Amino acid sequence: MARTDVLGAELQRQREVLKRVGATLKASEIPFALAGGYAVWTRGGPESTHDVDFVLPEDCVEEAVQALLENGMDRVAAPEDWLVKVGRDTVVVDLIHRLPTGPVDEGLLVRCTELPVDSVTMPVMSATDLVISRMLALSEHACDLSPILGSARALREQIDWRLVRQEAKRSPFAQAALGLLDALDIIEGSSIGGGDD
Asked: Which pTM does this prediction carry?
């Protein structure tokens, strides 16, 4: 099988699992939002080739996991203390309850937008929150700027750059990423005060 066929099959599996998780959480009335690479993809960026991420409040995690296990997902071991993992058909789904910006809360979820995600409508993290979270996750041990560059370029008209600049002050790595975006003229001409709507 050609490499492109293998990648296409994997992406299709990811999308199917993503829809299953989103539909299950909606049916269970658990507050959540699509996050990570697939949120960027839904908003117009490149498709994620890594995994599927959702955010939800910490006090909803166990209820979400139980609902997902009852709907055919499997629990996957996770050493991190800021997420739990479930999976199906080789696809791993991260259920994140704490981001680099802090705990997932009502404020973050209110800023999300209901969008169709490959035929299932669900809340999707705002472009501004996606970029801020990626920038604040940078560290001396994790300093890959390519996801930030791709996200910012694809979503730049949806991003509130004033808020990004304000939040970037929390980290020298985020400030460096912002400087690179400025140098590449990714921010220029974007919505300085606008949002995601």
From this structure: 0.90
The DSSP secondary-structure symbol of 105 reads -
Angstrom distance (rounded) from CA 55 to CA 41? 16
Closest CA to 192 of 128, 132, 137: 128
* Alpha helix segments (H runs only) across the chain: 3-27, 36-42, 61-70, 106-110, 127-136, 146-155, 161-168, 172-183
Pull the structure tokens for residue 185. Answer: 């003229």
Res 46: pLDDT: 86
With the C-alpha atoms ordered 8, 129, 30, 78, is the resulting torsion angle positive or negative? positive
From residue 7, give the alpha-carbon distance in Å to each of 15, 40, 73, 165, 173: 12, 19, 22, 36, 32
